[in-house]
């Protein structure tokens, strides 16, 4: 029987905890050299930046679908864990080996032959990969639970603080702590809107990640973050933190009240109950008629109706 043709598959997850796994470029170089040494004919090279912890890799699924339509091909990968780290994908590969759709699996770092012993060893390799992922996930969860028990925020410290990796604590950032505090105290005076606070923050040279200016949405999150008065929110629950508070709870509540007041829609009481308001439209262009109240020097009040002229394509000759 002729030797099968091979799909070359290289994968590296962007969130892969196993930092020893080679980059895709390194895998491609090694696999191409291995294919030359072993005289393997490559019909297609497939690369993917996607975790194999769970099913859902589009390129991998497309490759498997193609294999099911062909008459016996092979797969070349660096290691079995590049193909699967979950039971569904691993089981699917073993089944295709059983049915003869996959004639050969070749790995520079792992021995495999389509024999009962080879398939047994392959299933163990897939099982070990899944065990590694499951165990690592459980260790991460246990670490998060331990941090919560110690009242330490289990995440990336917000602006003004840094994660102290040696002690696994969160400490004030000497570069930004006072700048964030000044911004919070300034907003609490009630003299700043969000745009004017953004201007002040930029003038104080307070920036976000990679030196980028803080956007309004980011500033809103800072103003509403209980972390700055000593608490922290995690999965919908509020916890007491052990980190150094930046402001008092009283000042934080003052900031929330001002933010709430700024968010209220402003109503023009003078135009309330004006006849035809929000009803009449322009007879020429069809856009709405707006209402304006003017007070003359004599004290007389006049109400004017005019077209809003919102159309960008149709000119309206009515007076503004």
Describe the structure.
This protein is α/β, with parallel strands linked by helices and about 325 residues long. Helix content is about 40%, strand content about 15%. The strands form four sheets. A four-stranded parallel sheet has the order 2-1-3-4, sandwiched between helices. Strand 9 and strand 10 (about 300-305) form a beta hairpin. Helix 4 runs antiparallel to helix 5 and helix 6 runs antiparallel to helix 7.
Mean pLDDT reading: 84
Q: Which regions contain 5 or more consecutive residues with pLDDT less than 50?
A: none
Strand content: 15-25%
Fraction of residues in H or I helices: 25-40%
* Total strands: 10
Q: Termini distance?
A: 87 Å
Largest sheet: 4 strands, parallel
Using only C-alpha atoms, the radius of gyration works out to 32 Å
Read across the widest sheet, the strand sequence of neighbours is: 2-1-3-4
Which overall shape is indicated by the principal axes computed on the Cα atoms? flat
Order of helices and strands: EHEHEHHEHEEHHHEEHEE
DSSP helical segment count: 9
Quickly give the structural class: alpha/beta
What's the short version?
The chain is an alpha/beta fold and 320 residues long.
Task: List key phrases describing it.
single chain, 320 residues, alpha/beta, four-stranded parallel sheet, two-stranded antiparallel ribbon, 9 helices
How is the topology of this model organized?
Elements: E1 6-11, H1 24-38, E2 42-48, H2 58-69, E3 73-76, H3 80-83, H4 87-98, E4 102-106, H5 116-149, E5 161-164, E6 169-172, H6 177-188, H7 194-203, H8 216-223, E7 231-234, E8 237-240, H9 249-263, E9 289-295, E10 301-307
Parallel strand pairs: 1-2, 1-3, 3-4
Antiparallel strand pairs: 5-6, 7-8, 9-10
